[in-house]
Amino acid sequence: MIPLSGDIPNSKGVITEKIGSYSVRRGTSTLKRGLAHMLKNGVVMDVTTVEQARIAEEAGAVSVMVLDKLPSDVRKAGGVARTASIRVIQDIMDAVTIPVMAKCRIGHEYEAKVLQEADVDMIDESEVLTPADEFHHIWKWDFTTPFVNGARNLGEALRRIEEGAAMIRTKGEPGTGNVAEAVIHIKKVNEQLRKIKSIYDSGDKQELIQMARELKVSYSMVEETASIGRLPVVNFAAGGISTPADSAYLMSLGCDGVFVGSGVFKAEDAKERARAIVLATTFWDEPDKVKEAQKMIDERHSILGLDVKNLELKMQERGSMS
Amino acid sequence: MSGINIGVLAVQGDVVENLMSTRLAINELGMQGIVNEIKSPDQISELDGLIIPGGESTMIGHLSLVNGTLKKIKEKVEAGMPVLGICAGMIMLAKKTKDRVVGEMDQPLLDVLDIKVERNAFGRQGNSFEAEISLDNIGISKFRGVFIRAPAVIDVGKDVQVISKFNEKTVAVKKGNIICTAFHPELTEDLSLHKYFVSNINRKN
After folding, report:
1. Of A170, A244, A299, B171, which sees the most CB atoms within 10 A?
2. Mind listing the pLDDT tens digit for each residue in A183-204?
3. C-alpha to C-alpha distance for A109 and A12, rounded to whole angstroms
4. Which residue range is the domain that position B56 belongs to?
């Protein structure tokens, strides 16, 4: 079971107020991590317009992520990628009933504040956008709005959680249509989790604190994670997912759900593909249903994949230094 | 098979939390029973009770249509199987829904309880909240209500009993074998609501 507690003392993101005769609390870990729990076994889709958001909702997406450009277009365009237009985000929030997320630049506290004021449901501090501060991520405990962060390994994931992330996703290599990096990252996290779990089970506290130093996180964070044998927040896969089989494969590796970026709306059969990826995510453990989902798409319509070895820009490396 | 057979609809959402809470509730009550994740019509036919957990109701509705699960649940609930609908589950059990911003909704529903539900009735995530509420009618005087983009009941048909309100908004209702809550009991350590649900389930066989 994933713990829902984890508030730090005097976190500015937790607000207490009166509604009628009731005393209510907002921005608690239970509420932030709880929202991520509601998304489990679902697909979050990147969208840039109201029309795409409606297609995503109709296909059964659990949430949409608003960007100015899809990751593969960010890659092509070059230059600085920033948070999406607030007006577009608001139009999308008015058009769909599912939660709406938006991306801000790594370390850009004020893009995040703008998104919180705009009332988005979750903020993605994302390597797809150009980092504003390579060395410091946002201190997410100061926000009432929950955050999701990318990670390539256990250390990155736990450091983001210590900064207040309510949800983690693998980084993969966004905008490539190539799932290989997402697979590497989720397997890496799994391998490291198995390692700390076995150390925890052996009772060797010295070895466990050594692991905390290697991962650059607190001992208590490592101990909590090791004791449950999984990340202490909901963990999705992301980066390069293009087909129903991609999604089902990542689910089989133990992810709680998936983010699909360019894979849907850069394909020529976006509507069918959106639906097919949702089906394969829900029924990932039933290969005949994954086959049916895969039948709904045509490989000739898939986004053209990129070999990660030849990329000039590796988005996954952004923000990994802290 | 001995003991009651409870299922948690595992299409999407916070399934595991309900599984754990229900298992603990059965243990604490000293009852015999099993609790499993279910997502096929065959599994549903064998159940004595069902929990429809929180998640995204549009998604759960559309995906439950695919393999006939929705129809099977409707049959079983109409035949008297106890069901607990939480948040998205409450929406699924309702007759009609509308969204606070988007307006009237046409989404796949079970249409087994005569209520109209307003989705996102308290606002978006920024307005999600925790507050102490009570469900006096079913003997729970204090409960920590965790409301996440929660719905509220805006129209209640006859014979539907309101069991909890928050600031004049109806957040839990009951009729016969059906209980619905807008908040998430599975996200708290308080098992009283799961215990109430489980204690009202009888073994079928």
Report:
1. A170
2. 999 999 999 999 999 999 999 9
3. 14
4. 4-204
- Domain with residue B55: its CATH number is 3.40.50.880
Contacts of A107 (CB under 8 A, 6+ apart): A125, A131, A132, A133, A134, A135, A136, A137, A138, A319
Beta-carbon separation of A95 and B120 below 8 A: no
Burial of B119 from C-beta contacts in 10 A (0-12 / 13-18 / 19+): buried
> Has residue A6 been placed in a domain?
no
The total number of structural domains that make up chain A: 1
* Nearest-angstrom CA–CA distance, B53 and A159: 31
Strand B178-181 vs strand B169-175: parallel, antiparallel, or unpaired?
antiparallel
Cα–Cα distance list, A208 to A50, A189, A216 (Å): 48, 16, 12
Residues of B in contact with A61 (CB under 8 A): 59
d(CA A207, CA A212): 9
* Averaged pLDDT, A114-134: 96
Three-state secondary structure readout of B183-196: CCHHHCCCCHHHHH
pLDDT digit string (tens) for B121-152?
999 999 999 999 999 999 999 999 999 999 99
Element spanning A160, H or E: helix A154-162
Residue numbers in B near A93 (CB within 8 A):
101, 124
The whole-angstrom distance between residue B48's C-alpha and the CA centroid of its chain comes to 15
pLDDT band at B205 (very low <50, low <70, confident <90, very high): very low
Do the strands A234-236 and A43-47 form a parallel or antiparallel pair, or are they unpaired? unpaired
- Mean pLDDT, chain B, whole residue set: 95
- Tell me if A256 is assigned to some domain: yes
Give residue A1's pLDDT.
Answer: 62
B66 shares contact with chain A (CB less than 8 Å): yes
**Which of the four pLDDT bands, split at 50, 70 and 90, describes residue A28?**
very high
**Is the per-residue pLDDT at B1 higher than 60?**
no
Q: Which residues contact B190 (CB under 8 A, 6 or more apart)?
A: B143, B144
At residue A115 the predicted structure's pLDDT band, cuts being 50, 70 and 90, is very high
B110 at A interface, C-beta within 8 A: no
